[in-house]
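Q: My labmate handed me this sequence with no annotations at all. I'd like to see what the chain might look like in three dimensions before we decide whether it's worth expressing. Could you predict it?
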Amino acid sequence: MNNRRTVTALLALSLLSTGLIASEMPRLPKDLDPEKQFYGEQPKLPDLAEAYVSTSPEDLKDGLQVGKLDLPGTEQAVKALLADDKAGKYGDLDSILIWKDGKLLFEMYNRRGRVDGPHYTMSVTKTLTSVVLARAIQCGLLNMEDLDKPVISFMPEIDRSKIQPGVDTITLRDALFMKSGLRFPEKFIERKLGDTYHRQAYFQKLFELTAPVTAESKAYKYTGTDPSMIMMIVDIRAPGTVQEFIGKELAGKIGATYCWADQGCGIPKCGAGSNFTSRDLMKIGATVIQGGRFNGEQLLSAEYVKQIMDRKKGDGYFYYFHNRPQKAGGKKVYFISGVGAGGQYMATFPELNVVAVATAHNKGKINLPMQAVLDHLVPLFTKRDAAESDGKYLFILAGQSNMQGMNQRLTFEPRVFKEFGAENVLIVKEAIGGRPIRMFVHNWTPADDWKVDPDIPGTKPPTKEENGVMYRSMMEKIAAETEGVSPKAISFCWMQGERDARERHSAVYERSLKQLFSQLKKDFPGVPIVFVIGKLSDFGKDNKQPFYPEWEEVCRAQEKVAADTPNCTIIRTDDLNTGASPPNWKTKKV
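A: Here is what I predict for the chain of 590 residues:
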């Protein structure tokens, strides 16, 4: 730790001595109102005399936690970045900020960049419109099922008798994927109509003037009209106006300094038109990569954010975020980002748990600010990951109804994420109510003298086709999550046994559970595995439940496996009985 502090201090002194760290953060002149720094005002700002850069950002008590960027190679990377920026390699760069693992680690301003000055975001405004929707869902104004409902079902003032065929098929998700299918014969008619028609009357006119919407026209087309429909719906659902909703429920929650212009039709601009400080863009980007949480509060709908961050969508533009691979230091990295003309970025790098914000006032050259980040700063983290990481910690949650009913997001995920870091953890769940252990064991066989108990409803002879079917499903999920990289370590958490107690298979339960553990060891050779058994509760104690006649025997088998298996522990669950729907737990407590 002392060596790290020494390195950090020497780095800071070195950068100060060469003029790479300015002594004071650049701010707007005191006579300028930040909330009036719209697009047309920002060119009036004088360029900074020199770049301000800090690898130990100042704590402004603004909701951003701060740390230090002191990875090997930091000094050389920052010097090279400043030299390239001074030479104009990245155009008119205004700011770059880097966040990782909960902390702002790097902050740079140049030219028009000011820590308290909103910067135009251009098409990142589309991305922020999606964030507004995520907040609206979290606030209960809409729900996830609404994404697949027609847009016009949320606009009560639309006269359906006058709209073009197919308009009624446009869903919110179509609009979020830029696939509404709206096509107009006159260029820029959307802008012109806003001067005459307002709010729902504006969309009424659009829906009348569009060509008929067909399956063919519902192809991807980048436009400002689709996000405007989303904004209109939030405006309809929000108490007051959507501008007021943004001010209170989004910008207000993160303490943002911003200004967001209205379009002619009376709702906020959605194609471009928002202006936020770089730090406030960073707060939003960090909230997205953290599953919608900001400083302990679930600010955005977790399910909506999960869909934004889902890599299975492939490359493209979804929910107004660009999804595509980039190259950094010769390595492929994947980013999910808002991107705006002139070089505006609010980019997440999920695999690195890194967020980068960049602003510029380039003419064209939209890619250059992000290229600066990829050339000099992201490689610091890819090198560290390559040096330190040999896989992630894999937690497997397996079993039947009680494991299925456990909401791991409430307590389990926060605990392991805190312990290991969210970016270092994979969680796979394979649990379905009423399933016996044989569905996890390849070559399971019953006891020689086993037979169906006619007094137990639902009991049936086992079949070979059932053997291992859930185990195979579990392994397929693991393969998809690990992408072929062997885990660093595995924790196998098992909560099951009720069905086997019911079907009178306790005689082979110990053998079966040991077989299951052996399968895992064989499939993950050399990987440390910890086994955790959730012992059946006392619901069937003394075999008092007639439909679970071998409860005690299964409990004893679980205890025997735990005693015989290295790196295995057993956990009692007696305090989780419900009494209301036995033998299931009170899942809210779990």
